[in-house]
Amino acid sequence: MLDRIKDSDTVGDDGYRRIRGDIIFGRLRPNQKLRLEALKDDYGVSISTLREILSRLSSEGFVIAEGRRGFDVAPVSAANLRELAELRMLLECHAMERSFARADMEWEGRVVSAHHKLAAVEQQMNAGKTEDALWKRYDGEFHQALISNCGSRELMDAHQLVFDKYFRYPILSADRRGMEPIKQHRQLLDCALARDAKRAATVLAAHVNNCVEYALKGGTLR
Questions:
Q1: pLDDT tens digits, 85-110
Q2: Sheet harboring 71-73: ordered strands across?
Q3: What is the pTM of this model?
């Protein structure tokens, strides 16, 4: 009995991660109707498990629950992007300030290592030799490393959720800004090593606002 419960949990968790990832990476498009029968076949989970997964994703803001009409992928909009960008900056700047103030060698090592991996992936991206999933993974790991010494799991979890919802936009807009994000990530690393939270906040604001401007430039968001 316990094995069956464990197997069910594993299937549900895997289905949750896959559907969530497919929303972030645009494989499930904004406003798309999520038809349970089709999802059941695509993700290999039962209808009841799908309802639990989609309800969980609805609570996180990735899915809209439409009552008896079922579930839709959450829409995107210019207003939502701006709101997420503002929330991200508020959370990340506050967490960086706390993290820098508590900095130690272990934290510094995590930041340097995360930046090294991100820089390698960004160079590969500019050469067209890597995938969005790796970009998101290492971009997220670097920004999480910057705040990893903030002393608050709640703060880090809140930042992670906002970061994932925000990341839909550079993916959907095929954000490829060349060298600018690479330079800004290097500047954030330098700020971390210098424990300069004030300058880090300025760099982060430019980093996020550039992404917002790029996403809005295409005219697909209203």
A1: 999 999 999 999 999 999 999 999 99
A2: 33-34, 71-73, 63-65
A3: 0.89
C-beta atoms surrounding 121 within 10 Å: 19
**Identity of the residue numbered 55:** S
Do residues 217 and 109 make contact, with C-beta atoms less than 8 angstroms apart?
no
Write down the CATH number for the domain with range 2-73: 1.10.10.10
Phi, psi of 72 (to 5 degrees): -125, 150
**Encoding tokens for residue 221?**
């968001």
Q: Are 155 and 88 in contact (CB under 8 A)?
A: no
Buried b (16+ CB within 10 A) or exposed e, 144-167: bbbbbbbeeeebbeebeebbbbbb
Name which CATH class applies to 78-217. mainly alpha
What does the domain layout of the chain look like in residue ranges?
A: 2-73, 78-217
